[in-house]
Every structure is written in C-alpha cells, then in structure tokens.
Amino acid sequence: MKWETWLLMDWQQVLGISLSAIGFYIGLMLFTRLMGLRSFSKLSSHDFAMTVAIGSILASTVISETPALLQGLFAVAVLFLIQGVISLFRRKVKPLKALIDNQAIILMAHGEYFWDNLKEANLATSDVQEVLRKNGIKSKTEVFAVIMETTGDMSVIKNNKVTPDWSLFNDVRDSELLITTDKCSSQ
C-alpha cells in the first residue's frame, strides 16, 4: 500500500462521504423527532447502548468504501423502533422494567460507606471520593447519600435542613437503610 492511498482521497470519496453524512444527519433528525426526546437520553443502560450503536452505524455508513446510506438509515430506524417498543413495555409492564433496567443503589449514606453495595458495583472508595471531590464535598459529614444511578452515573445528595421526600428514593435499592440511617443519625 502506497502512502498516498493512505493519506489522500479523491473528489468522489469526498462527495460520497459528504452526501452520506448529510443524508444520515437528516435521517437521524427525522427519527429523533418521530421518537421523541428520549432518543439520545442516557436514562438506562439500553439507552446508552443504542447511542453507541447509532454512532457505530454512522461511522460505518459514512466512511465505508461503498457507503450504503439506505442500509445505515434502515439499521438506525430498526434501533429506534426497538427502543420505542422497549420504552413502551417498560412503562406498561412493571416486571419487565425490573428485568431490563439496572436498579439504582446506595453507595454511601451520612458519611458511611455501604461496603456490600460498593463491592457489588465493583467500585473502590477512591471512585466515590473522586465523585465527592468533583461535587465540592470537603467532608463526608456533608453527604446525605451517594447513589449509583441506573446509567452508572453517581448522584451526590448533600445534607441540609430539609426533611427528605422519601418517595424520591422508592426506586433505589436499600433505600430503607437510608431512612434507618437518617433516623439513627438524628437521635
């Protein structure tokens, strides 16, 4: 292989890539408008997987030697359809939601680590400490809870004088420990 073929491209390749990218972009905007705002959310692990899959299809479609725009758009349309069906079933059939989605889990409450949950999430205390620092926490006593969300993101909830609305924690595994820990720490 000559270095020229690796480094350069001709006008036909530029045109093919440009038309594929424009067509894919227009198709993606259309699918997003049809399926709604959730299309590229990261509310669950399957949402994230869809975003990665679409990126892979986009790359394959736009830079392949023989760009098959309609094939790429069809593949993305199928992914959007699958996401729509899964989202519908998740809303309508509660046992299916539990089967499909990860469950949020408490990693720390009131400055105390939940060691079993850290182990299950395959995290070290240094992972939690990094998130605490990024959230401006200077002391573990400032922490009401650290929760690993269904997407793998960590939410840091700071202590304050407001009584918690426990309904916000209904979908968090071991939330009863958070309530128990809160009652114990206030005595």
Protein architecture, described:
The protein is an alpha+beta fold. The protein has two domains: 3-98, no CATH class; 102-186, 2-Layer Sandwich (CRO Repressor). It is built from eight helices and five strands; from the N terminus they run αααααββααβββα. The protein has helices at residues 3-7, 11-35, 45-63, 69-92, 94-100, 115-120, 125-134, 175-186; strands spanning 104-109, 112-113, 143-148, 154-158, 172-173. Strands 1, 2, 3, 4 and 5 form a five-stranded mixed β-sheet that branches. Helix 2 packs parallel to helix 4, helix 3 runs antiparallel to helix 4 (69-92) and helix 4 (69-92) crosses helix 5 (94-100).
Task: Provide key terms for this protein.
187 residues; alpha+beta; CRO Repressor; 2 domains; 5-stranded mixed sheet; 8 helices; 58% helix; disordered C terminus
Helix/strand layout:
Elements: H1 3-7, H2 11-35, H3 45-63, H4 69-92, H5 94-100, E1 104-109, E2 112-113, H6 115-120, H7 125-134, E3 143-148, E4 154-158, E5 172-173, H8 175-186
Parallel strand pairs: 1-5
Antiparallel strand pairs: 1-2, 1-3, 3-4
Helix pairs in contact: 2-3, 2-4, 3-4, 4-5
Please sum up the structure shown.
The protein is α+β, with helices and mostly antiparallel strands and 187 residues long. It folds into two domains: 3-98, no CATH class; 102-186, bsu07140 like domains (CRO Repressor). Helix content is 58%, strand content 11%.
